[in-house]
Amino acid sequence: MRTKVFQEVYEWIKSLLIAGILAFLIHTFLFAVVIVSGSSMEPTLHNNERLIMNKIIYKTHPPERGDIVVFHATESEDYIKRVIGLPGETIEYKNDQLYVNGKPIDEPYLAQERQEWQSKGLLLTKDFGPITVPADTVFVLGDNRNNSTDSRVIGPIPMSKVVGKANIIIWPFSRISILQH
Known about the structure:
Elements: H1 2-30, E1 31-35, E2 50-54, H2 57-60, E3 68-72, E4 78-85, E5 90-94, E6 97-100, E7 103-105, H3 111-119, E8 128-132, E9 137-141, H4 151-154, E10 157-158, E11 162-171, E12 177-178
Antiparallel strand pairs: 1-2, 2-11, 3-4, 3-11, 4-9, 5-6, 5-8, 6-7, 9-10, 11-12
């Protein structure tokens, strides 16, 4: 009887230990939950939403325009922003239109916000550029263009500071969705 109880306890401890190690490895190397802090990505992301971030994706291929990335902005703070410009591209905003290498680029995720600002006679994104994105960096902007500390302020982001790609909103439950660009 005592041996059977000991065996049962041993199996539980072993299972919990394996689960803990797997959770640690997955969190450390593959995926992590990140919390949105602030309003710089509204209306796409909102303060205190929880996201699943893919940490390994940029080890296999570079970011794409429109990806929502998490990066180390300071030693103690990570930011979440949208990739607008890739290495070697020239980025410019004129009259609320994004131009990459002189060609207009559609930003469907901003359509509603842009329309609201334009109905007030205002620009969602103030003119800037042209700016050429250096090698091994990305140019990022918050979707809330008039309330975002992004590459217009802090400059292009070195790829070495990019932690991963935000993929899924998991909290609150009413907003669960896959992030698209």
